[in-house]
Amino acid sequence: MPPLSAGNTRQTIAIGQVQQIVLGARRAGRDVDALLQRAGIPPELLGSPLSRVSQAQYAALIFELRHSLRDELWGLCSRPLPLGSFEAACRQAVGCRTLGEALRAGLRHYRLLLADFTPRLHVHDGVASMALAPRLPVDERLSYAMRCFAFLGYGLVCWLVARRLPLLAVDLPRTEADRTGDAPQLFQAPPHYGLRAGWRFEARWLALPIVQTPESLAGFLAQAPASLLLKYRDDSSLAERIRRLLRRHLGGPMPSLEDVGAQLAMTPQTLRRRLREEGAGFRAIRDDLLRDAAIDYLTHPGLTLPEIAGQLGFSEASTFHRAFKSWTGLAPGAYRQERLG
Known about the structure:
- It comes from Pseudorhodoferax soli.
- This is AraC-like DNA-binding protein.
- One of its GO terms (molecular function) is transcription cis-regulatory region binding.
- Residues 240-338 form the HTH araC/xylS-type domain.
- By secondary structure, the protein is an alpha+beta fold.
- It folds into two domains: 13-228, no CATH class; 235-340, Arc Repressor Mutant, subunit A (Orthogonal Bundle).
- It has helices at residues 15-21, 23-27, 32-38, 55-69, 85-94, 99-111, 140-161, 183-187, 214-223, 238-247, 257-263, 268-277, 282-298, 305-311, 317-328, 332-340; strands spanning 13-14, 52-53, 117-124, 127-134, 169-173, 191-194, 197-202.
- A hairpin with a 2-residue loop joins strand 3 and strand 4.
- Helix 5 (85-94) packs antiparallel against helix 6 (99-111), helix 10 crosses helix 13 and helix 14 (305-311) crosses helix 15 (317-328).
- The protein starts with 12 loop residues before the first strand and ends with a helix.
């Protein structure tokens, strides 16, 4: 069996995100199970709180919801966000000179279309903030709509300037999906939970030039929003560096925290402290990598469970079985059956 490639260990997405994004479709009376199946997501996974789906599955679900509901916020708000709204905002943005101009133009565009929350750019004491203020009582659907608008808006901004915009903090309305703890990884910034949504950054970044063009926009739109899901993660973070290092050892003995510290020229104490500052932990990084790799391998019916266990460095299939169940809430055989049908 070939070694696991880097492309097969992409971060997966918590099932809580799936449960939240279909809330609008449920309210609209759509057949949610059918939408999930068309996206390659077994409906049974929604009953397993620890389950994960791939980026491709989540992007496919966004596509299905968008076209079923004719709504770019998937039925989560009181009125649909018309198809073509995102493209129109992008076309305005690529015609701007700076990030500040593009943000102001894009948010002005959406203020004309959105009834449930108001997006604005504020600048004060050297800090710029893209803030979403709710106009209606914040329920679970509106919370998730604002959260997604903030995240996809951040992805668009990063694409416009062709770099990750460093954030100082992220404001998010609390949702059931927060139990998964994905927000710090998605935004690479500490989340603050309340009623509003948005993100804050140093105001000097507003002067960054827009480097994208109408020509590059065509390819971007063909892949969005899938291209935004995790494209601009901070690959320089210590947690990501450790994940890449551990990935090279899949299929064999995993380095210990002490081994990794030696390779990074850090004492174990410094490594633990630096990871705590990022909201991460060594064991969680290792387990997340193994979980994501296992989920990928389980989609290949030609691989037996003992083969997968061996490829992931487990000496016995039973040990892999227990570990996978602790990560996802399902035994690997049951997960595979639900995934492949």
